[in-house]
Amino acid sequence: MEVLHRTESVSKFAVKRKGFVFDETEHLSTCRVLTERLEAELRAAKSEQLSCGEVLLPADLLPRIALDILKMAETEPCGLRGCTIFINYESDNQCRRIGTLKCDPSTVSTFEIHLTLRQDLKASWKSMLPQFIKNFTKGGTIVISGSFSLQRKKLYRSFQD
Questions:
Q1: Which of 114, 122, 112, 111 has its CA nearest to residue 144?
Q2: What's the rounded Cα separation, in Å, for the pair 157 and 160?
Q3: Residues 80, 71: contact at Cβ < 8 Å?
Q4: How far from 38 is each of 42, 89, 106, CA to CA, in Å?
Q5: Cβ count within 10 A of residue 84
Q6: Helix and strand tally (H, E) in the chain?
Q7: At what angle do helices 61-73 and 24-48 cross, to 10 degrees?
Q8: pLDDT at residue 123, as a whole number
Q9: Could you say which residues form the signal peptide (predicted)?
Q10: Residue 138's pLDDT is what?
Q11: Do the Cβ atoms of 134 and 46 come closer than 8 Å?
């Protein structure tokens, strides 16, 4: 990533990547949208795949994941548009797919990212939740750890490979 110039706003930069110019506000907007889509996929998985009443995760987890995915997509031919994200959940040494997110359905996938979320086995803060919140969560509560893994799998070959 190469910074070309700084605009009048201190927080707004123009960045050149592979011949295209993006500004930081566009990057942050893309990160926010990706965070929202990951959240929606987890909400759907809560009842369909995880069979639980509530999924708790650290507040900064999804934005961190989205930012890491955007960084991984920077070097790809189609960028984030060519990405398919497979969301996996690991608990008790068992890993299962709980969701799939195609970033741009109109673009052929050029790479896959396998996101693995892990159960928080410590979850000491779960005991501090008010009782009325615990009562709302019929079917149990799953607590997601702040650690995760991302693995990229290219679906093409380049001359450099």
A1: 122
A2: 8
A3: no
A4: 6, 13, 19
A5: 20
A6: 3, 8
A7: 120
A8: 62
A9: none
A10: 56
A11: no
Using CB atoms within 10 Å of the CB of residue 95, give its burial: 0 to 12 exposed, 13 to 18 middle, 19+ buried: middle
Q: CB–CB of 55/144 below 8 Å?
A: yes
- Give the residue-averaged pLDDT of 98-126: 88
Residue in this structure with the two tokens 């673009």, named with its chain if needed:
107
- Phi/psi class of residue 35: alpha, beta or left (left: φ > 0; alpha: ψ in -120 to 50)? alpha
Query: Using CA atoms, how far apart are residues 14 and 3, in angstroms rounded to an integer?
Result: 6
Please name the residue ranges forming H helices in the chain.
Answer: 24-48, 61-73, 131-136
* Token duo for residue 57: 């995760």
The single residue listed with the structure tokens 């398919």 is 84
What residues does 142 pair with on adjacent strands?
55
Query: Residue 136 pLDDT more than 90?
Result: no
**Would the pLDDT of 110 be above 70?**
yes
Six-digit token pair at 10? 């201190």
Are 86 and 113 contacting, i.e. CB atoms less than 8 angstroms apart?
Answer: yes
Residues near 54 by beta carbon (within 8 Å), at least 6 away in sequence? 46, 136, 137, 140, 141, 142
Please provide the average confidence, as pLDDT, over all residues in the chain.
80
Query: What distance in Å separates the CA atoms of residue 150 and residue 62, rounded to the nearest whole number?
Result: 13
